Queue: 2 jobs
Job 1
Amino acid sequence: MNNFKMSNRCFRSFYLLACLILFTIASSNALDTNDSNKEPARRINFVVSPKQKKFDGAPFSFQLQAILMRKYHKKDFYLVIAGSSEDMLKKITRILKRKNAMIGNIWFDSHGHFQRRRSLFEIGEEEFNYKTIHDSAFTVHLKKLAVYCDINTNVGIGSCYGGATYTLPAVEIFPAQRMNGDSLMIGLSTLLSNSTVYACESFVMTGLGIMTANYSLAGCPGRKKFKDPIYAPVWEKLGEWNCYSGKKGKFEEPVTVSLNQDGSIYVKGKKYLAFEKNKKKLEKKKQQFKKGNYNLSALYQENEEENNKQYSN
């Protein structure tokens, strides 16, 4: 009899323990199911464009077209006109907090500066290049966007030569200089939570239709100064964009990039120079190259300004 009571007690204990284990597993599975069915965070796209102190046709054209596109995509696209990275941060975070959203795509509309002989993009007067992108004090405001970015975020450096990897040849007193756009891209991806970064080897155009998913960002500038042998490495890479995947930790095959109406970055099916007509256009432009079309005084002026900055610091 005592043995029966003992075995009955053991059975009840085992039964309760089994029920507890089964309940725990079921609860865990329910949580997993809830997590997997959880809707992904809302994504918002941004174009960050400079606040102008004096009229500049390129950013003005971009801003005008972005304002027009925003009329049709008010829920998922914003134009942010910023005078500094701090100004940009305040405006973007205000929107993201209000919408409880993440960054889907962010495009930095900026001039490139060939005379500085390095890849860069600017927010206001702040220059982000292969050196400053690794300066934690300099990037303090830009890095605060990281919490709103992830491996699904796409970043566009919208400046000419922003992703250039070639070496500019020596000229007069200036030694050969590598552009280091790849280092800038890796640094920016790391800063923004291993996002995917796109940047161009060549010119970035700002004519009509730049937000219609066509080839408007690629092309040939018409101004005389660009038709100089000093620009030869730039012309050879027309319409070519490098892509760095933070998720994979490597560069993908070069592509040609466009923008959709909602500000999202779109990769074209064929590269710009894959079209025969564009190859012919390039060859025609190269025949117009003439030494002296580019005024080398711009290099000396830039060199003097940078030396003055270093001296004042």
Job 2
Amino acid sequence: MSEESKITWLKRLLIVKMVVVLLLWALPSWIAPASVLNLFGVKMPEDPFFMRIFGGVQIGLIFLYWFAYRNPVRNRDIIKYAVIDNALSFITILGVAFTTGITNPTIWVSAVLVALFAIGFYLLIPAPAEE
């Protein structure tokens, strides 16, 4: 695949990632009331502080992905970060699944998504800029 094609596919993947992060993880974790979380099969924690912080951090990540979208070559380290972030999320979900169990389908959908994102970002890391 040519570098130009890789950049095109990377930008498409970044758009999908930004939308998924915003709608599936960021907004629900950051501001959703208990009734909305129930739609995802998630119970509102007694103290939602860490869940709300997680949502805010996810919104920050959307900005990083936007920088990568605008200039993938110059911001290729953000793509490398995305590989690590998504791979660690996948490993964490699997670790919880094997130790305490996961029955929530939303969590399994998240596991599949982060695994696919990690693989996609890894395969589409742009070559460094020529000097």
